[in-house]
Amino acid sequence: MDKSKKTLKVAVTGAAGNIAYSLIPMLANGDVFGPDVSVHISMLDLPDCEVLMKGVAMELEDCAFPLLAGIEYGTDPKKMLKDVDVAILLGGKIRTPGMERIDLLEVNATIFKEHGQALEEVGKPDCKVLVVVNPCNTMCYILMQHCTKIPRKNFTALMRLDHNRLVGQLATKFNTTPDKVSNVVVWGNHSLTQYPDVSYAKVDGVSVLEKKSEVEFLRGDMITTIQKRGGAVLHLKKRSTVLSGAIAARDHLRNWYQGTKEGDWVSMAVWMDGKSYDLPEGLVCSVPVRCKNFEWEIVQGLEIDEFSIQESVNELLQEKEEADSIM
Predict the structure, then answer these.
(1) Are 272 and 294 in contact (CB under 8 A)?
(2) 41, 83, 86, 269: most buried by Cβ count inside 10 Å?
(3) In which region does residue 293 sit, left (phi positive, over 0), alpha (psi from -120 to 50) or beta (all else)?
(4) How far apart are CA 78 and CA 114, in angstroms?
(5) Structure confidence at residue 1 as a pLDDT band (50, 70, 90)
(6) What integer pLDDT is reported at residue 233 of this predicted model?
(7) Is omega for the bond preceding 280 within 30 degrees of 0, making it cis?
(8) Residues 254 and 31: beta-carbon distance below 8 Å
(9) At what angle do helices 306-326 and 101-122 cross, to 10 degrees?
(10) Would residue 282 be called left, alpha or beta, if left means φ above 0 and alpha means ψ between -120 and 50 degrees?
(11) Can you tell me the distance from the alpha carbon of 4 to that of 257, in angstroms, rounded to the nearest whole number?
(12) How far apart are CA 34 and CA 284, in angstroms?
């Protein structure tokens, strides 16, 4: 290993899971932080997953990634989250048939309370955090309440999967490649109430709304397709998304660290301070952001249909109230 390279210590929880198995190689080969940054991977999962983590660690060694500076794994959050620069939180219960959303929130809230307390005790004050576990917006909120030494702007939740789905659908609809699609945004919660917005979307630099024959579709069926995409994949595969989830986490972190494209933005769920788009203070809500040097700023001044996002805001407020009652 080139000792002159910068090294980031990156924690991955739920490390024995499928999304982690897809994401960790991307961290180790430079896809996320670039070719000049080495990574030390710290893997955390439950005690009954320790053998699986050992197997993953062995495979990582066998891959001989040039940027892999070290590997460790364990089951104690206070050990595995100690002094990490980046924490990617994938570990939590998934919703099963018949489970109410509040039940899932209660179960995962316990996990995130523990992780928040561990980060408060042993984490770096400048640690950057990505929450993937659902309901991810509210899990991010819960995490913040138990880790006050890390600035709220350092906590984010994953909305990039929804963002990428919208980009992919537009590329398919207009018979082009995803890199030709820009300026889409998904507002609100990572749920069926989210608002996929194409008001400023462009394909090959041209507003999609200039294609008059497609406006009804873009304002109707397209929105429903994105909102229900996860369920559609689950129905077909009989399991939740894995590869697209890992790619979304990669893209979220890569843009946060390396920056967004000039003139474009991405969707991130971040802490609301009450000063943007009349969104209530205290929510973790998806908005358009531009990124540079591991910092983000909300894109201001876009026109948004208040009716279209209000349902998602109401749901986030309800989840926040439920989270507060649990805590």
Answers:
(1) no
(2) 269
(3) left
(4) 9
(5) very low
(6) 86
(7) no
(8) yes
(9) 70
(10) left
(11) 19
(12) 28
Model confidence pLDDT, tens digit, residues 67-103: 999 999 999 999 999 999 999 999 998 876 666 777 8
Distance, in Å, from the CA atom of 306 to the CA atom of 125, rounded to the nearest integer, reads 36
- From the centroid of its chain, how far is CA 93? 16
DSSP string of 238-285? SS---HHHHHHHHHHHHHHHH-PPTT--EEEEEE--S-STTPPTT-EE
pLDDT in tens, 112-130: 999 999 999 999 999 999 9
CB 280 within 8 A of CB 274: yes
Secondary structure E strands in 159-248: 181-182, 185-187, 195-197, 202-203, 206-207
Instruction: Confirm whether pTM is higher than 0.90.
Output: yes
CA distance 28 to 15: 14
d(CA 119, CA 282): 20
Residue 188 gets which letter from DSSP?
Answer: B
Max intra-chain CA distance, the chain: 57
CB 317 within 8 A of CB 188: no
Q: Which two tokens stand for residue 280?
A: 């209530």
Predicted pLDDT of residue 40: 98
Q: Of 45, 312, 67, give the one whose Cα is nearest residue 196.
A: 312
25 pLDDT above the threshold of 70: yes
Positions marked catalytic: 190
Which tokens belong to 250? 């990669």
Roughly how many angstroms between the first and final C-alpha of the chain, as a whole number? Answer: 44
Element (H, E) at 13: strand 6-13
Residue 77: closest CA among 149, 6, 147, 137: 147
Contacts of 307 by beta carbon, 8 Å cutoff, 6+ apart: none
Count how many residues are written for the chain: 327
